[in-house]
């Protein structure tokens, strides 16, 4: 973002359009100036910069502002400038050169340095007197992209509202809306409204809209429409601003940091669930779920074999928050289990669907129960619609067969397939198993047996179906014998 006085726009026919850059000439020259004056007082760089300004005053200052943020400065004197000024100014005004010299003598004796060092230190901490010690350079194209984004963000300082449509990146966008405390409605796209349209203009709200912009732009496709309050001829006017991803304006990719977990409760639950290795994928803030004119981004999503389920953790408490949260969850167009902090002033009847209460930790067994019930329901449904399973191969992967039949792997383990066994992750022909069995002799060395099985893409689980068992000595398998 740039200071408002560096905003460069065109206003015509009810629209306002930033003067975006594509030519990198000025950017290239400015970058070279910053490199050239590294180690010099910044005022020398500013004098050189003035030569570029001319009719491009605001553009040069805007680009320079972005480059200044990539610089480090140090005082031009070892003496602290503020202390030197305080020492001199506390002794009153001087009206003659003699009084000035006398005052400098006192400072020289106090700070134990020469008079010239005292004079040099007086304003050494002021910005233009500081030394440019470090400059983190970038290429001109990237500087232009960042300038164009900053120009657009600065324009949004005076936005009374923002409408946008996107394809993709929904989670990050709505997470950022929530983080920034913005109000929105879902209609034809997303309408972000604020105090400017309700009560009075609020600079902070415009700044929040500006911060949202890079995340919107990070979607695969996007378009925005904003209502901008400005002046024309000293008179207040409301103008339209439109921009989309099809425009030829160069912008950088978003690098907005987004917190992964909102609380230790969420973080601990995520780690505990992953550690159980239940076969369900868990995703933090997975999808955007429509809820009336709003959206809900559940805290977690669980995914397995085409099944999905959501978990929303309600741990924050204010009467207004709870009322709004409950209202949105009731309108959510998805199945969401709600985990509620037992200290909140609400009860199970306030919510629709599954509700569990927690204190300091989400009860894992309750979540597992819900997911297991989903699995069983899906298996029952698939078993009811699954016809005869025909297999011609000696050995088939359960995962591959499940994909082919559009059912879950667990469903295949629940059915009987004539002349086949389900062994681990495989479906194996009984005839094929008998053929392999003839290669194995009773009391044969275990390593040899394992080699035979591997040659036929079988695991040691197949031994049980062949009527063999493994003999162990301590922790080491030694041989294979027939089961009695």
Structure explained in plain terms:
- This protein is an alpha+beta fold and 484 residues long.
- It has four domains: 4-69 and 138-244, no CATH class; 77-123; 264-377, Trna Endonuclease, Chain: A, domain 1 (3-Layer(aba) Sandwich), CATH 3.40.1350; 395-482, no CATH class.
- Helix content is 40%, strand content 24%.
- The protein is built from 18 helices and 22 strands.
- The chain has helices at residues 25-36, 42-53, 57-68, 81-89, 97-111, 115-121, 140-155, 170-180, 195-198, 203-217, 264-276, 319-331, 364-385, 398-405, 409-412, 430-437, 446-455, 462-466, and strands at residues 9-12, 15-18, 71-74, 131-135, 159-167, 183-187, 189-193, 221-232, 235-244, 281-284, 289-291, 294-296, 300-304, 307-314, 336-341, 355-358, 395-397, 420-423, 426-429, 444-445, 468-473, 476-482.
- The strands form seven sheets. Strands 6-7-5-8-9 form a five-stranded antiparallel beta sheet. A five-stranded mixed beta sheet has the order 10-13-14-15-16, with helices on both faces. Strands 17-19-18 form a three-stranded antiparallel beta sheet.
- The termini are far apart.
Keywords:
484 residues, Trna Endonuclease, Chain: A, domain 1, 4 domains, five-stranded antiparallel β-sheet
SS field, number of helical segments: 18
Amino- and carboxy-terminal Cα gap = 80 Å
> Would you count the extended β strands for me?
22
| Mean pLDDT value | 82
Q: State the helicity in percent bands.
A: 40-55%
> How would you sum up the global shape?
elongated
Biggest sheet strand order reads 6-7-5-8-9
